Amino acid sequence: MKTRRDFIKISTAGAGAAAISFKALGSKGFGLFESKTEGPVSDEDLTPYPTYCEVCFWKCAAWAYVDKNGTIRKVVGNKNDPHCNGRLCPRGTGGVGMVYDEDRLKTPLIRDTRKDGTQYFREATWDEALNKVADKMKEVKEKYGPEAFGLFNHGTPGGHFHHLLRAYGSESNAEPAFANCRGPRSSAYFSTFGAYVGSPECTDIRDTKCLVLIGSHLGENMHNSQVQEMSDAIDNGATIITVDPRFSTAAAHSNHWLPIKPSTDIALLMAWIHVLIYEGLYDKDYVEQYTFGLDYLKDHVKNMTPEWAYGITTIEPEEIRRTARAMADAAPAVIIHPGRHVVWYGDDTQRGRAMAILTALLGSWGKRGGLYFPEGVSVPAYPHPHFPEPKWTWKDWNAGRYPLATMGITTEALKASIPRYNYKHQLKAWLVAGTNLPLSMPDKPLFKEAADSVEFIAVMDTMPMDITGYADVIFPEATYLERYDVIRSAANREPNIALRMPAIEPKYDSKPGWWIAKQIGERLGLHDYFNYDDYSEVIDWQLKQLGTSLEEMKKIGVKKYPRKTGPLYLGDGEDYDFNTTTGKIELYSVDFADHGFDPIPNYTKHPEPPQNFYRLIYGRAPMHTFSRTSNNPHLSDLMSENSVWVNPKVADLWGLKNGQEVWLKNQDDAITSFPVKVRVTERIRWDSVYMVHGFGHKNKKLSRAFGKGAADTEMITNVAVDPIMGGTGMRGNFITFLTEDPALEEKEVKA
Amino acid sequence: MRYAMAIDTKKCVGCGDCVVACQTENNVPHGYCRDWIVERVDGTYPSLSLEFRSERCNHCDNSPCVRCCPTGASHIEEGGIVSVTPHKCIGCGACIQSCPYDARYSHPDGYVDKCTFCLHRVQKGQKTACVDVCPTKCLHFGDLDDPNSDVSLAIKDRSWKVLAPEAGTKPQLYFLT
């Protein structure tokens, strides 16, 4: 069926543009074979420019080294940066591939219709593209109010558009990073400790004696400084306990691997709490002084014994006791890692609560080797008039549901875009900045219906992605190595800031996000909110308020400041007022009880795979970030497609061979667009399969990534929504194998 | 002087950063690599072990690639670093066949290419690009003749293995186990 907004493969971008070669054509040598490719260049012949990485959210500060021909030769970590300590991860090292990827978006594009009714993208001038978006924003404002113009965003570029939308009068924004990722953790830790764990998380892995990972696959998620510190912890002889149905890299480096039955983590956590309390292993002074609700908790977990948990988790009772005692031995230098992508089964806030309660019993919140008190630098806002007050915001979509949501819920934004859901406050147009929604969100049919329902979609990205195929206007954004951007300021052990400045001029006709936002703002008469010619003026002004300058930061990249909020850790017996209802760490959550949620977590049984189906577990690979790096020439060299991990027992049953291509079908009869290769491996349980997220791109313009591997999100049609904060639990999907080509009609979604 | 590298398999997470850093430092063309990652899984679920190894040229003391090179393109540099001079190489591939570690490849420009232990950096007192970038600090480089070098200290109190010792090449990559 053709819809109003057909997905269009971008066919005009790049026409006439010269192909970019990563090789310099200088020649040296004069023998039989000349080395035409330029060899290594001495660092002294390169000019370093400070930046911070945008390949993932860790935002490591780095130096981009530019040669005399104006080519970025390499990107190297800034030694003074606590996010990376001078060592970038493979994605950061390969970040230069984002600049020289010849598949980049090169000019503004506008959707147009031919005489025969088919749609296509045509190249446009910046003026035309910007006018089109500004005109649509004016129209929406007049017809429906500015609130009906929504924003989906991720990462640094999203911030500039958030500013634009606030100035315009809309706070209808949502980012997958909350409800599709770390949201439950925020709600869980805030309700327990009155504080967030932040990003980077305030885990003191460097000095820990025991690191507990609940499904967190550190090392496969390259959360740089944490991976570095886990390595230090191994050197220091720390005990590592990993709970995962998959033999993850972290599990392989652990002293204890608990190969848990998927979806039963809360039972294990409650059994650990039982052991700590009933064996008297918890930190009694700490719990007495800082927590509220021990008696309720003690009573609650009375029957949640290791034997009870064994029947649920398949983890031996003695192993549960042994690991609980190992944590107690290490306390308070023990970390129950809060995790990051934690939307699994719909009771994820409660699982986060169980982890937070365990942390409190071990007395490790605010202690060396546990979780430290982070501190950031508050960067003053560049002067602008007050933002207008919107008549409604993202909160109003929830209509009283998900009371503890602290950011917009993406699936609610989609439903608010679809008239048949009859939301009181509806979205009529979208701006999408730096997030590839079709691959990052579950329930693709919902996304497609929403995209087809709204009147207008503008997308800003550096690459042609699945999302750009749905756009009416596409803005080609300059990559992070070609632009100024907001000052990075993330809380850490030491407060610090980092500068991002262009190492080279933007390639092609791409422009920085700040410029695009400002140009639209000017067209809407919002000049006072963008009162500068170049973003470097904003940065310089802000840096001067912080006692430095653009000039100084260009030389150092990262600046550290002394702490103002006191020490990293709680002193013994120190008075401390927690930002919760009771002023204490809440083992019993008063807030949850008030909202009608379980004040202490309970284990809930979740659906299990039907016969011949396997639970889909997905995760990360260290050389890729979501779907955004799949086409990066350096990183696709390392891993060009994902595979589906299948236990040898299961492979035997199905007669599957290593490397064989299969299609996956889920419980709702959804079938992957592309086949995916089987990896027969002992590293996965027999009741589950595993895939790395971010592959199976459908945009043919991605010459390396198109059709490589399969998208896990195509198999995630069942979403278990967390009633507390609206998280979208995605691990309740089950797949089976199709060994014959299902001959889907719509393999490459066509114009 | 005897340059060598130790690779801590207890800490390596197999991220491939060493591969990308080498690519960008040495301008290795896309689709080729001078170093790579091997993942080895042993056992049956749930009694498993997993080893990641960051591998590259072993810069052997007794190097068959140098012996079999008909033009002298393959040679030994300072500190025992096995190198190739592109303009002397005729691309015959004898060295590729002779290497028990599959450490050499045919560069698209026609000559045979391989890891240089980043000689251009080492000569200036820097570490190799892969060692400097490794997030887990699982790579150690230095002079084995210096008892206080990173590599000497790394192998001093740890058990280690070399790959294909039966080939008799006296390899200089030490995998800490």
UniProtKB/TrEMBL annotation, chain A:
- Please name the NCBIfam families in this protein's record: TAT_signal_seq (TIGR01409)
Organism of derivation:
Draconibacterium sediminis
Protein family membership = Belongs to the prokaryotic molybdopterin-containing oxidoreductase family.
Organism lineage? Bacteria, Pseudomonadati, Bacteroidota, Bacteroidia, Marinilabiliales
Q: Which residues form the 4Fe-4S Mo/W bis-MGD-type domain?
A: 46-103
Q: Per its UniProt record, what CDD domains does this chain match?
A: MopB_CT_Thiosulfate-R-like
SUPFAM superfamilies according to UniProt: ADC-like, Formate dehydrogenase/DMSO reductase, domains 1-3
Q: Which GO terms describe its molecular function?
A: 4 iron, 4 sulfur cluster binding; metal ion binding; molybdopterin cofactor binding; oxidoreductase activity
The name this protein carries in UniProt is Nitrate reductase
Write down the Pfam families for this protein, in alphabetical order.
Answer: Molybdop_Fe4S4, Molybdopterin, Molydop_binding
Q: Which UniProt keywords apply?
A: 4Fe-4S, Iron, Iron-sulfur, Metal-binding, Molybdenum, Oxidoreductase, Signal
Automatic annotation (TrEMBL), chain B:
- The answer, when asked if Iron-sulfur is one of the entry's keywords, is yes
- Gene3D superfamilies tied to this protein: 3.30.70.20
The alphabetical list of record keywords is: 4Fe-4S, Iron, Iron-sulfur, Metal-binding
Locate the 4Fe-4S ferredoxin-type domain: which residues? 3-32, 48-79, 80-109
The record ties this protein, via InterPro entries, to:
4Fe4S_Fe-S-bd, 4Fe4S_Fe_S_CS, ET_IronSulfur_Cluster-Binding
Where are the annotated coiled coils located? none
Task: Tell me the GO molecular function terms.
Answer: 4 iron, 4 sulfur cluster binding; metal ion binding
Q: What is this protein called?
A: Tetrathionate reductase
Q: What is the lineage of its organism?
A: Bacteria, Pseudomonadati, Bacteroidota, Bacteroidia, Marinilabiliales
